[in-house]
Amino acid sequence: MTAEPRGLHAPYSDAVLRAIPLGALLVGEDGRVVAANPQFATVCGIEGVDLSTGASAEPIAEAMARQLPDMDVAKAGALRSQFVRKAELRLTDGRTLRRSRQPIDAGDTRLGVLWLVEDITDQLRYEDDLHRHIDSLGELARDRAEFAARTSHELRTPLATVLTFCELLADPAAGTLTLAQREYVDTIRRGAQRMHDMADGLLHRYAQAAGAAAPPAYAPLDPGPLLARLVADATPLATRGGVFVGLDLPAARPPLVADADQLERALAALLDNAVKFTPAGGAVTVTARPYDGDSPGWEFVVRDDGIGIPKEFHEEVFTEFVRAPNARRGPYPGTGLGLSVVRDAVRLHAGTVTLHSSEGHGTAVEVRLPAAGPPGSGPA
């Protein structure tokens, strides 16, 4: 009977081993080399050691052991005898190898063990650099949040004072102002109010990021009075800018389980954006409708005749501090927080927000919220 040759069946097996990017060594049950690819010697740094078929695997293990720091005889013996499926070896030359072991069986018969060795030095260095960068970015984000929150807090008091004195000056009881003086006071009031709103937005945003914001308080509410109040608040500024604001509400309004503060903040941000970006002669329409189906809910749509948002920015504008190029170019002050506030509120209510817009053709933002609130909510 002809004996089975020790080597793997060539040429396919030899081609497969050479194609493996890792160092590969197949050792038989008798402790002798069955096959090895050239990469094994290069990766392990043991050029000159016999890796031919039939050679003993003992010199290979000893050559590897000599490259390990503080390696005594007992540990070297453990290296040869103990089969660990995966291990990382730090060599004296500063490299790190990842060694893995895969038994090779034919039915119930163990033919040998396949060792795969990979140099992961660059990978570990990259991971270390990445972790350092992540830590640095986290620290920068915390510093930015602290700075923005502190600055916003410090701004609110003087801005409130400016607004109070503007109201006092505009009061006829304080004395009659000339037309020019009234325009000056109104300009100061508008600028101060805009800055006050921006400071409030920043404070709220970073309070949420720091986990200091109050948890949502879900309760049934009628969206009608809330929308009517928001439209009434926005109308004076819109009228001064020549913008018409309309509200379309149904007579029958089933309740919506929502956090009133979060909902008000989101709808106010949408209305403020619509008025701000609509030129004189344009219109802003707020529509609210309940809808039925498998999951009944409420749909809110704020539509304007404003400058619109380029299609390529429809996703980005929901990110904090991101503003479309046409908004940055024009006389439209802001922080880029409005739509991020809407996004966060919609997420808290397990709803959806959809943007319909194109540059120069106005914007419509559609918010849909489940009538019963997010899963697990319910009346507070």
Q: How many individual domains?
A: 3
Alpha-beta content class:
alpha+beta
The N- to C-terminal Cα distance equals 86 Å
CATH class wording of the largest domain: Alpha Beta
Helix count, DSSP H or I runs of 4 or more residues = 10
Largest sheet: 5 strands, antiparallel
Architecture per CATH nomenclature, i.e. the level-2 architecture of the largest domain: 2-Layer Sandwich
CATH homolog superfamily of the largest domain: Histidine kinase-like ATPase, C-terminal domain
As residue ranges, the low-confidence spans are 1-5, 72-84
Q: In percent terms, what proportion of residues is strand?
A: 15-25%
Arithmetic mean of pLDDT: 83
Strand order of the largest sheet: 2-1-5-4-3
C-alpha Rg, in Å?
Answer: 35 Å
What is the H/E order? Answer: HEEHHHEEEHHEHEEHEEHHEE
Approximately how much helix is present in the residues? 40-55%
- CATH topology assignment of the largest domain: Heat Shock Protein 90
The backbone outline, from C-alpha atoms, is: elongated
Strand count: 12
Question: Could you characterize what this model shows?
Answer:
The protein has 380 residues and is of the alpha+beta class. The protein folds into three domains: 12-119, PAS domain (Beta-Lactamase, 2-Layer Sandwich); 128-209, Signal transduction histidine kinase, dimerisation/phosphotransfer (DHp) domain (Helix Hairpins, Orthogonal Bundle); 218-370, 2-Layer Sandwich (Heat Shock Protein 90). The chain is built from ten helices and twelve strands. The protein has helices spanning 12-19, 38-44, 58-65, 73-81, 121-170, 179-209, 223-240, 260-276, 325-329, 338-348, and strands at 23-28, 33-36, 86-90, 96-106, 109-119, 218-221, 244-248, 256-259, 283-291, 297-304, 352-357, 363-370. The strands form three sheets. A five-stranded antiparallel β-sheet has the order 2-1-5-4-3. Strands 7-9-10-12-11 form a five-stranded mixed β-sheet, with helices on one face. Helix 3 packs across helix 4, helix 7 runs parallel beside helix 8 and helix 8 (260-276) packs antiparallel against helix 10 (338-348). The chain is elongated. It starts with 11 loop residues before the first helix and ends in a 10-residue tail after the last strand. Residues 1-5 and 72-84 have low confidence and may be disordered. One of its GO terms (cellular component) is plasma membrane. It catalyses: ATP + protein L-histidine = ADP + protein N-phospho-L-histidine. Pfam families: HATPase_c, HisKA.
